[in-house]
Task: structure prediction
Amino acid sequence: MVQETVPVVLHPFSKYLREDMMPHIWCQGCGNGVLVNAFVHALDELQTDLDKLVVVSGIGCIGRTAGYMNADSFHTTHGRALPFATGVKLANPELEVVVISGDGDLFAIGGNHFIHAARRNMGIKVLCANNLNYGMTGGQQGPTTPLESVTTTSPYGNIENPFNLVHLAAASGATYVARWTSLHVRRLTQSIKKMLQKEGFCFIEMLSPCPEIYGRYNKMRSGLEMMGWFKKASVVESFSDPSKADITADRIVVGEFVDISKLSYEKMLHEKISKINERAMEKVS
Amino acid sequence: MTEKKESKAKQEEQVRIGVYVCHCGLNIAGSVDCAEVAKYAATLPNVVLAQDNRYTCSDQGQAGIKNDIKEQRLNRVVVASCSPRLHEPTFRKTCEDAGLNKYLFEMANIREHCSWVHLYDKEAGTEKAKDLVKMAVAKAALLEPAVEAEVPITRRALVIGGGVAGIQASLDLADTGYKVYLVEKEPSIGGMMARIDKTFPTMDCSICILAPKMSDAGHHPNIELLTNSEVSEVKGYIGNFHVKVLRKPRYVTKDCSACGECVKVCPIAVPNEFDVGLAVRHGIYTPFAQAVPSTYIIDMNLCLNKDGVIVCDKCIKACDRQAISFETKPVTEEFEVGTIIVATGADVFDPSVLPNYGYGKIPNVITSLEFERLINAGGPSGGHLIRPSDRQIPKRVAFVQCVGSRSEKSGRLYCSNVCCMNTIKDSLLIKEHWPDTEICVFYVDIRAYGKGFEDLYQRAKNAGVVFIRGLPAEIVEDKKTHNVWLIGENTLRKGVYKINADMAILSIGLEARKDSEMIQRLLTLSRNQDGFFLEAHPKLRPVDAATGGVFFAGCAESPKDIKDSVTQASAAAARAGILMAKGHVTVEAITPITFPEKCTACGLCVKVCPYNAISLNKDLKRVEIVEAACGGCGTCAAECNVGALTQKHFTDEQIIAQIDAITENEPEKKIVAFCCNWCSYAGADFAGVSRMQYPPNARIIRTMCSGRVAQRFVERAFARGAATVLVSGCHLGDCHYINANYQTQKRVERLWKKMEQNGLDKQRLQLLWASAAEGEKFASKMREMKTIVDNVKPEDIEKGKKVFAKVLEATKYS
Amino acid sequence: MQKFWRRLSIPEKMRHAPLDLEKVKPAKMEIHLIKDECKGCGYCIEYCPKKVLEESDEINARGVHPPRVVDESKCINCSFCSIVCPDFAIFVTEKKNKEEK
Amino acid sequence: MKTALTGAHFLNGDVACAEGAIAAGCRFFAGYPITPATEIAEHLSQRMPEFGGIYIQMEDEIASMAAVIGASYSGLKAMTATSGPGFSLMQENIGLAVMTEAPCVVVDVMRGGPSTGQPTLPGQQDVMQAKWGSHGDYGIIALSPCSVQEMFDLTVEAFNLSETYRVPTLLMGDEIVGHMWEKVVIPPPDKIVIVNRKKPNVPREKYLPFKPDENLVPPMACFGEGFRFHATGLTHNEHGYPRTSSSEVQSELVHRLVDKISKNADKIIRVEEVMLEDADIVVVAYGIVARAALSAIRKAREKGIKAGLLRLITLWPFPEEQVANAAKGAKGIVVPEMNCGQMVREVERAAKETPVAFLSKLGEDPHTPMEILEVIRRNK
Result:
């Protein structure tokens, strides 16, 4: 009886996706699908107007997300999602601009753009799928690769200290900062909802299992094993000190870390503009 | 030391002891020749005055003493009468009134320990009385005046348990103006009373009269309500308790508006504790409609999210106020209080242990508590008394009394006080709703002792409730109709009955809470054999615990109805209030004194002190004592072998003087018994109160704790030829000084070893753990030891004298 | 109802079945599997709190074993399977009352 | 709202360019300070708000270019301005703008290179980079102003072209035209021709964001207009969906990106011809150099040498026909450039047999008329 329902059913959320782009390119057990799922759930719960939503992504596995969302979307060059989104948001503040990209794209090649967008408090919502390495290019060491992890370019174990993304975001001035894993998908969804309702620059990091590449090199051959790690190691410590929110083999600090309100760049800019013109009008008359 | 000697010397010149032997009507005089004893007393050293009188505790008795102190310049007073646990305070006051320091008073217990236990051997009784007086006089000669240290009292109270008793006590204290921490284990206060439908004898709605009190407690500015919390640690002493409370998370924040939307969506459902499983509740729930606080709670043992991963977020979504937070973690709160009221309540008896009543197997056999929920309009059946099997309203109902009370079978020998009246009330309730229901009550005795109780009993009878004396031997089910057959003997009509009913209600008794032991340990309380907490004195201090600053309210102390619980609660509040109003309390001058010049800084005393009141000052090579923290057990003094430390009012020389007094003549016939003030001495008193007869050869030396009994005391007793020695104290774990009696055990075991090595009969040294309620245990021990005394070989006694001879020198004083 | 009853963890002292069980009897759920979308990560199976799913031995269009419903009546519609699925291949709906009778 | 500047003004080239942008309807500027283009940013930071437009200084030129593309996709006319070093950084996203066909204007006020070179001195060394700077094949439009007036006029022109052909359009000024003060006459707004991008005239379901019209240019929808379309830097089909392993899609797309410029070259290209009809010697010049060339040919004529000037206003697409025609009757061609010979290669290619003499000049001053006249004389 379950079987017979199969062929006809259409997933209730298929309307949020570009059916003709499905199935997505992601591997078995990849967390990117979970992130998109959570994002879609959030959109659905908020009844977001898809006509006013712009999804921007950079390069990398998760970069394909833009193409999968049934909304205006743009797939930029490597690392440039944020400055592009800056242009979009400033040119039309009515739009809900969400950048969905990876740790390499946002924090290695795009690192400078990230800290400046956060510093300006640009009204952009950033969702980062952190898979701890460069997945699409075959698993090279990246800015978030934990110490001693093995990757195709750190075959003897990584000796570079990884970025603590939530700390970085908080320090750069983000108004909302959270970290969850693909296992905490409910909390992730709630965070995304919160983020979409906030003003200013918001950042959510989702630890995403990359079993095919990162996992394979680090003794976690399946998505279930990586999820198992998340379950074993995760501790929810909301609003604890972001600088202590580490990601190690036996401890993954997750939770919300920052939730403040601050005037966004576009708000301030457009307020200024209208003030200037009031003055101009007075001069004229 | 030297100038101390002089001072003692000075005293010795002028020690003037007055001895008063009390007849206590015939209580003592009945089996002791008091005049004879007084005459004997007059012959004792330092005694300048000895007389016997009918009631020494009477006004003129006391007046006489005062007068003599002035006129005869008495500077020591000995009264030979009842137990010091009863009248020592009285006579100490008498002395003080006459300007004599109360620590210069000593008592000989010739009633509980003598006249009452040797009713039929006046001669032996009199001889024993003489010895007891002699011991008292010997100690009295060495008594020294003392001033009591004052300890400040924190003006905050902790109330453990949020039943009606706890609520009442909290409200009383809070209204008096003291801050109260009310700690309740369950998610809501209200306790047992909240589950009851109507109260007897007035038949008013239980929750209706409780709910207002609950919300008062919830909103009172002076009450901090800590629900879903448990006291995890209590340190300190009267007036200065440091309390730790573990607040378990509710996972629902104060923002909860109790709208109940979350409950509608929660996929988890289990039987509801509040309705004894007759209704279901959800994983997120409020215990009952009137719960205080009204904040809901998530049962994390059942919640799908218990592994820390939020699998199900239905409640989160349903909650507009976003009051649900799975992040919350348990927190431990710490605060200081001056007094503690224990109102932890009672459990109900689980009748499924009585197979003959078939509870749990026969669907239509229910308990009186289940009945309360069924008859309650807010209950699962909407107030319709229906029987579980077919949910029909029963035509014939049988009540069975004393289920889990007053029976060997259930192991509950005591009467639970409330069941009779509760059943009578219940029967009337049924009659109110369904007048033509046939009701019969099977009972042993109907105990309608309280105000208005008898009327209610009569009303029930007049309403046609049939009372049959004699409990059913068994209840069997009629498999077809699911009716029940009650079969038993009618002890009035002397005949067997076999009565058919649609439903049987077991009137279950109350029993001590399973977790009482935890509270007992936290507060170093003691419990009677039924497991209920033991008051300091059954008559004169009924709501005080033996531990200073701790009081009882409600069923924690014994089964009670609501009225008594509330009464006791107010009493406890008043008692606590007295302490806090005063703001300070004096601690008995039974703390240690040190002689630094003798101290070797070995640190043994530091190790054994249960209160960490002693610290080692390495630089000065001596120990330092925090008097306020000292509990006064004296185990430090027992541990010190170099005489660098002893306990005030129980000094080595005083105790040795008592030992010597006992062993002066016919030691080979005697038992030198050391009893701790709280349990074994009280046990001996209890044996006396209950007139339990035992051989007269025991001589009891009272110490505050068995931990005070030094090896050298026992050794000296043997060295002086005592036949046997008894060391007795509270049960391990029940020690009033936390764990001091574990030292007692160690020391006795060491002595046994020594006796064995030296080929002595180790039977001669006995160790007894007896609670204040175990009079019989004490008495039988005395009988047992009598036979030992009779069988001790003289050569063994001689050998003992030699083996322990050394100690005589070591413990020589005057 | 008996079945549902057995699933409750009954604390010791409670000897009688709750009277209002029907009230809380959970609605019947229908689990929809879009088998050929499944990539076989197994998340839905692993993290179902009621263990409603298991790996089937059939092989789908993507050459993996999609899950199979073991006991649909155990499903309490938390829908975690549907939100944790990276491939939008499973979701749960409430059954229409029609086959209730 | 403030109204745009009109009438005669005494401005420097950068400011004229900024005013031109405003006149052309540019409402978004993102940039990064760099000499000698900084004054454009400074002026716009003051002017943009007055017209409800956005000025933002980004963290670098890469970001500036990205932001410009984003703004363009949000429906604003957008521009950035820089010089050599920044122009190099922008190449990555100029490529993205080409691939996603984002209309936008990039002003390169050329200075001496390579690398940091001579920030305050003129040059014409980026003109080949303008065509070939970003990787891959593509067509692009580049204009070369020779006066402050043209800094205004050609900025407007650049916006119109980029809007028409959905291609980044480059305004290749130099330090001199940028910093030089001259009279600029700005016509009233209604006299200025303004072109806006072509919008789709089909419903969402039918809309294919990269399906070209007859001019090979796809009508452009903007974000938030309800078309819910996708654009990517990957090779994509008419839906905008990536097709990274299809040779058909690749050749179709890349050829179109080249063709939409080359096939429309005649509509795009503008040159200025001075006394070419009978010219034996044709000077081909652009930018500030062309002004020296002009007085050079005048002096040559005085000395009886038939010299003419072909000034390239459009550098890319290259005015091949115009050069070829001019070359036909001529005995020789002279090409003065402030580089080591860049556009001269294109001129040689177009001039066929006609001999071409190249005159290089680097550093502070452009060629003097005398220097050019000298070469004209030598080649007659």
Notes: Strands of chain A lie at 53-57, 72-75, 96-102, 125-130, 176-181, 202-207, 234-236, 247-248, 251-259. Residues 265-284 of chain A form the longest helix (20 residues).
